[in-house]
Structure formats: structure tokens, C-alpha cells
Amino acid sequence: MTACAIEGGSAGAAATADPEAEPEPEEPKEPDEAGKAEEAEASSTGTDARPDTDAPPPPGGFTLTADGAYAARLTAAPGPPGERAWYPERWTLDGPEPYAVPLPLDQPEEPDSEVAPLADGRVLIRRRVADRQMFSLLYPTGPGTGELLLGAVGCAEMTLLPPSPDGRCVYALAAGEDHASLWLVAGGAFGPEEVARIPGRCSGGVWLDRAGRMLALDRQEPGGGPVKAVAVDLGRQGEVTPLLQIAPGSDDRLLLADPDSGLLLLRSDAPGHDRLGWGVLGSCLPVRFPECLRLADVAVTPFAVQPGQMLMPESCAVALRIDGAPGSWVGVWRPAGRQLHQFAAPLGWVPGAGYWSRDGVLRLPYANGATPCGVALLDAPEDVEPSSGTGRTGGGEGGGEPSAADAAPVVCKPVPLGQAPLHGAARPD
After folding, report:
1. In this structure, is the dihedral angle defined by the CA atoms of residues 122, 319, 162 and 1, taken in order, positive or negative?
2. Rounded to two decimals, what is the model's pTM?
3. DSSP3 helix / strand / coil % (the chain, rounded to 5)
4. How far apart are CA 68 and CA 62, in angstroms?
5. b/e map of 351-365 (b: 16 or more CB within 10 Å)?
6. What is the pLDDT of residues 265-324, one digit of tens each?
7. C-alpha–C-alpha distance, residues 13 and 11, integer Å
8. Spatial separation of the C-alpha atoms in residues 49 and 346, rounded to whole Å
9. What is the DSSP letter of 223?
10. Per residue in 116-164, pLDDT tens?
11. Which of 29, 165, 204, 369 is the most exposed place for a label (fewest CB within 10 A)?
């Protein structure tokens, strides 16, 4: 993998990469098949719901498998505020209706535990016990929860990375002052094992391919300096190569990558201040910093890219989380357009949770007092071509988006999902 830089007025370029439940029976057949067949009361998809003032926010995020079939989160049992018992919950999302399966054990979980779903329906959980990290796999079995102990790592702090695209493996990052250790904590042959040691301080974690071999991390050299995204080749004992080199002194962090189209979403201060930009993996074209993604008084973070757009990065729909004083809502944008469409999020949405179908439908999981497990469906809106008087087309030169728009964008009042272009969704009586 090599990096390429663009000299001149543009901010830089992306680098090149060429990577060579229904309850289970009382005794599950095999650990890797546990959780596949499930039976639970299904909750509906939908967008209208009543508020749940007693529901606490989850302590961690809502983690999805790469294909969007399963999700996992920590949730709380009913109880007085401050005395709620946290337990893992797995969501099944690839059927006609989504439903959740609780996975409690004999004692509640700590709120700083992390969970991640696997493609076979099991859920990995990371628990901190003193200065050790304990890992187990949870799965429904009869009326209770089965647990398969995987082992422990002697480390005070560790963070789970997004589940591998292969659906079998989960990695965790232990960041130190002068190096970071990458551990395979699920999917290995003998429990947790260290697979790479990377010099410098590392954070982030974005998969660059469908095989789960190429992983991007944001790294600062041991002696300090700017943060640069690097690629870690797990097929070559963790070989590290540059991925983003926009400007010599800029902080260049990778936020999302789509292996099908090669679209990269990044954040960099190369333009003079922190901006969202996009580029293409393997291309030496300059990184673009769309003006429509530069909003005042809010934070804009991409969380999902439409898959299946082979060799068409400009046409991918990108979902963005927008955080401002009123709360969090949803944005939809395409690199080929110059428009940021804004929509109100469903009540109970975990901000930043969602995934695209190949045909451009954004699925937003949510839970509230009226719907304990729901998914709102949002069709990606079409970009409106600018008037011919501007002398421009929606795609810009060469089908790409210019780095500036005709006018500075503003934060619009989000369109309620009930007025957005939605698919019909059945709800149970």
C-alpha cells in the first residue's frame, strides 16, 4: 500500500491500497450455530411512537454486524433511576419484522461493558474485572442465556472494534502511550490472541475490505506529531502502511469506508480547520471537502454508506448523524450532489445506528415505550439539479462534487420521518 500526495491548491488525496431469537434448545448443537433459530415476540417496523420518559439512554452504542442482520446493545431492566440492572440484548433485523432477545445472566452487567454481535447470532461481551478484560460469547438457550468463556487479557483499558466483515471475528484495541496492541478476541482457535503491535498511539477502526484483512486505524507517531490514518494488513502480521497523507502537518482521520465503491469518508484540518471530506481508495484525485457538510453550531458525523455501488463512489448515499442543541437527527448526502437532506430521527433512535440496503433504503433501529424493537425505513432522496442559470450540473466536473457550493448551507428544520419518503411498514395489532 502506498500513499500519494497532490501538490497545488487542493487539500490532498486519498492513498492507494491494494490488499493481496427464538429460544435455542436446552443444549445447542454447536457453539457456532447457537442463536440461528429464534422464537420471540416480534415488534414491528414503523415510525410513529409515544415517548418513554422512564427509559434511560444505553451506556454504550448500538453495534451492528456488517450485513445488518443482527445488532447488540446493553439495555436496562425496569427499576428506580440509578438502580437499573443492565443486561445484553440482541436484535434480529433480517426477518420480516425486527425483534429483540434479552440475554441476561445471574448478575447484571457493568455499564462500561461492551457488546458486539456475530453473524451466527451470538453476542460477544467484554467485561472489565480489575485490571483484566474478560471475553465471553452469549446465546439464547431455552428460557435462559448460555455463556461460552473465551478468556482474558491482562490490560486495564481495551475497546472493541466494529465486527469484522466476515461475521466471525471481533478485534479489540489496547492503546498505550508508545504502541497499540490489536487483539483477536473472538473467532480465533485458542481464545484471545495478540495479532499486531503498532508503534504510536492508535484509535478509530474502519474495515477496508469484505474479507476482514485490511483495517484502518488513526495513528500518532510515538514522538508526537499529526494523526494520520494507516492501514494494517492482518494477512501480513500487522504490516502498517500509510493510508491518508493530505498535508504534512494535518490531522487526517478515516471515519468510514465502503469496500464496494472505494468511497472514503474522512475528517481533516488540512483546509485550515476541521472539515468532513471524501475521497476514493486507490485514487490520486484530490480529497473533496463539500461545503454543504459544513454546518454552523452542529456536529456532523457519517455512520453508514450505501453498499453495492461497484466503482461508483459518487453515487453512494451516505447517512450522517447531526448533533445540535435540539438533539440528534439524520442527514442524507451523496458525493455527486451538493445537497444535505435532513430528517427527524425516530423516537428512541440510538444516534449513529443504522445501515443501508443496496437499493438505497436507510434502516434506523429504535426503541421506546410504544415500540421496544423497531426499524424506521427511509428512502434516500434524490438530489435536485441546480437551475441552468448557475452554469453547473449536479455532478460537477468529471461527475465529482466541487469543494464549495453556491451558498453556505444552514441547519434546516429536519423533516419528520412521517413526511419523508418511507416504505410502508406493517405493525402488529
Report:
1. positive
2. 0.79
3. 5, 40, 55
4. 12
5. bbbbbbeeebbbbbb
6. 999 999 999 999 999 998 888 899 999 999 999 999 999 999 988 889 999 999 999 999
7. 7
8. 8
9. T
10. 999 999 999 999 998 899 999 999 998 899 999 999 999 989 999 999 9
11. 29
